[in-house]
Amino acid sequence: MTKYFITIAALITVGCTPPHKKDHFIELKFITPFTITPASDTIQLGDTLTLGANFSDSVKDILSGKYYRLENFDFNETVIFRELVDSSKCITDQLWNINDFNIFNEVGKIVNAGSWGFVRYVYQDSHYKLRIKIVPKKRGIHAISFLYGLLGKGVGLENIHLGPSDKGGKKIAYLNNIWNIINDGNTNFCLYEQHTKVGSIYNPPAFNDEYNYEKEATYTFVVK
Questions:
Q1: Using an 8 Å Cβ cutoff, are 220 and 143 in contact?
Q2: 38: cis peptide before it, omega within 30°?
Q3: Which PROSITE patterns match (predicted)?
């Protein structure tokens, strides 16, 4: 138990005050929803996809089912564009190709970082909003994936107060991951399966991150 505490404490940033040995870390895993329209598995070269988001700053934790208020929060989300060129390779080994798309920021923005993009919402009226136009410049089988940029690092959430721990310390909330869900999970997964090697997502244990990334956070489509 002591070894576990030291390992977790070393990985989590919770401010200037070091955690006490009586404190207990509570993992949170938030959900952020996106839409991609038109919701079709095939579009024509030069057609426009619209990436959207509009969700409350009371964000659901998938582990507990509870909602927590996150005001003007940096979700540290990235977006990766890929061309699926080899069905024997997994998604992480496919060709990255953000520059094969024209991206027009209308509300919020995608910041092109060379190989991937950073997602930046507009925070307004207690909601996070995003509207981006995406126009493909190349034919092929493409995939758009969303990923929490700080996966595995653990980020302390000092604004969330969970009360005392069983040992007389306090419960410290930390963000472990963010699950991105596109179109309520309707992501043309059948097309994905045909053109890339699927990971170990079948019969997944509860809260399987790989299942979310491949089946819910990756949108696959054909450009003809």
A1: yes
A2: yes
A3: PROKAR_LIPOPROTEIN
